[in-house]
């Protein structure tokens, strides 16, 4: 068993920021991620453009450069690799954390590596920075477990000349619908609301609305998915039930934190807001010695914390831990 001062679960931008701030204070930490470094960003759409500017994605006082005003996915991946290497962070990739035992000052993090071998890490403190992108919000309808149902849109090419349904009306759904249409798929977009969300990026919203208005993309609003079958999808629309031909379903219905994992580890949530109880000055949870960083602090309100503000949690937590150790 390896021993560290701190184990950080999650090697996204917030986890990396935590590792950097701890290292600056002489605190020995290891980062463990079930995927690659910044795994969530890796799974973003291939051609994604960030809504924010480069300086708001920076961590560790390392400047981020971009060819254009807003960085793209490839630039962000390169940047976070470079930052991790610059600070010599100890990142264990492709290790799935099953549970954390012990108590404050004597935790043991239990993981399994990509070869199926068990790994154990002893630490005095634990930081959970697991984000929310790994747990999709399900439609909870028959057929959702079919291979043709996709919760993570990557790129459009494989779906050329196919009938596809995009479920949702926020940024991810709008981008997927447009790219699929441009690549030659026959696109239907269905959403339970009245129209495209007002939160869709300002340069995308009129584009998707114009494609729907012209009939190039079929838009079905106030509509719910009832059933997914191998060659069709059944929907409930304001005019009644309809069944349409379908080859692939993109369920762009958002994501959420793994609250079950948190609850198993003694993290309690405010029943009114859905936010976990944390000390606002240290971000320590109800379980002594276990800290929450990034979007986890917002609970189910995942639209309140992004890379831009979650990256500052590292400093808050590192200062609190360094005073104790």
Beta content comes to 25-35%
Largest sheet descriptor: 7 strands, mixed
The residue fraction in helices comes out at 10-25%
Number of domains: 2
Strand count: 15
The secondary-structure class comes to alpha/beta
Mean pLDDT across the residues is 93
At the fourth level of CATH, the homologous superfamily of the largest domain is FAD/NAD(P)-binding domain
Low-confidence stretches: none
Order of helices and strands: EHEHHEEEEEEHEHEEEEEHEHH
Write down the CATH topology of the largest domain.
Answer: FAD/NAD(P)-binding domain
Radius of gyration: 21 Å
Number of helices: 8
Give the termini distance in whole angstroms. 20 Å
CATH architecture of the largest domain, please?
Answer: 3-Layer(bba) Sandwich
Shape: elongated
The CATH class of the largest domain, by name, is Alpha Beta
What does this molecule look like?
This protein has helices at residues 13-24, 39-42, 73-86, 171-182, 205-213, 259-264, 307-310, 313-324, and strands at residues 2-9, 29-32, 91-92, 95-103, 106-113, 118-128, 149-150, 163-167, 186-191, 218-221, 224-229, 232-237, 240-245, 248-251, 290-292. By secondary structure, the protein is an alpha/beta fold. α1 (13-24) packs parallel to α8 (313-324) and α4 crosses α5. The longest helix has 14 residues, at 73-86.
Helices and strands in order:
Layout: E1 2-9, H1 13-24, E2 29-32, H2 39-42, H3 73-86, E3 91-92, E4 95-103, E5 106-113, E6 118-128, E7 149-150, E8 163-167, H4 171-182, E9 186-191, H5 205-213, E10 218-221, E11 224-229, E12 232-237, E13 240-245, E14 248-251, H6 259-264, E15 290-292, H7 307-310, H8 313-324
Parallel strand pairs: 1-2, 1-6, 2-3, 6-15, 7-14, 8-9, 8-14, 9-10
Antiparallel strand pairs: 4-5, 5-6, 11-12, 12-13
Helix pairs in contact: 1-8, 4-5
